[in-house]
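Lab notebook page, bench 4
Experiment: in silico fold of construct C2
Operator: M.H.
Input chain length: 423 residues
Purpose: comparison with the prior construct
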Amino acid sequence: MPDFPRLTVMLPGYDEELITRQRSAVGSAMLLAAPIVVAFTALDRAIAPAAWLFLLVVRVLAAVLLLAIGRAARRSERPERLAFAAVAIVCATIEVCVFATGGVRSPYLTANVLVFAGVGILLPITTRQAVSMYATGLLIALVPFMPGLHPVDRLPLAITASYLLTVAIIGLAGTRQQDNLRRGEHRARLEVARQMGLINLGTLAGGLAHELSSPLTFVGIELEMLETTPLDREGRERVVSARTGLSKMRDILVAMRQGARFANGDLRDVVMHEEVDQALTLVAQRLRSANVTVVREYAPDTPVVSCQPTLLGQVLVNLVLNAIDAMSGRKDARLTLRVRGEGERAVVEIEDNGPGIPDQLRQRIFEPFFSTKGEKGNGLGLWISSEIARVHGGSLKALPCARGALLRLSLPVDPPSAAISAA
């Protein structure tokens, strides 16, 4: 049985997507930086007219190199290295101008702030890459003054260094925040693509289930007729085994049909424990592969709930898959599912014997983009599940558990249909 919820989405990974963004950003940044570097020659002429021509040559050479970097970045596999080189070129150009216009007391020394600000604003880079670029800028701006520094210049240099270091720290904080936002956007796109893939796969599954139902019915009739004929013991056992396999195939087709129903706002009455069983059928292969023991604790007369079956199935499958992931590697993996009624509500509890959920994270796991799986998780599954429960007038909560994790899905027997239609 295919593992529907783990459908592979063929989209570029975050690193690949970041490289594409960096190519464009570095190219655009160099087109902006090159004329700015040359434009400051007007200030050179006012501050140091004797060195103006020399500094003009330096600035033009730097601008040419920056334009070459921008051109090369558009086809580079490592555009962040070119950005690193651009930062070094601009800072080195500023340093030449600093020594030509007064050294430590030159007004150009603090111009490195513009470079640091540009790195944080114009370039989509990771925190590690930003650390390297800011460190390079600081070293080029400050280290050349260290040998033979006059005592009277120590304070001005320290003040300038504090400015540059402060801007670098702020830039790092901003870079980290922007990097986290980009990663969140990337995970969101993957989740949307996965959901669209599930819809397409659901259409295929529904058509496949329809096409197979008639041949399976024919096979079932033939097996029933075969049972009425005289057979030896071995032959009868084979017929019984074939009918058992046929029954399992029918269960799978029912689950496939349930998964193919779209969430169009229509409500249907479903029996909660049957929905749980269908979710288990869809992930049966994952359960077997992970060697998980499934324990069903269904109360008699489990409630009938009016809901959108497709959405409810999505919640149940997601919760079961999360439990399987949490118990990965355990030899005694055990998944317990409880279904019962509590007053006017139907309750489904899914409990595993994995590492559990820390107390301080029981609420945060339902926040969008928050994941305890690191880069393997998108942080949207539990949030989407909790939103589905909410629009049905119910709730999804993580409860304290002596061992492992315990999630409780609670739905009203008669949900607010207006809320679901609005959603």
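Observations: Residues 263-422 form a domain with the Heat Shock Protein 90 fold (CATH 3.30.565.10). The chain has 13 helices and seven strands.
Next step: discuss at group meeting.
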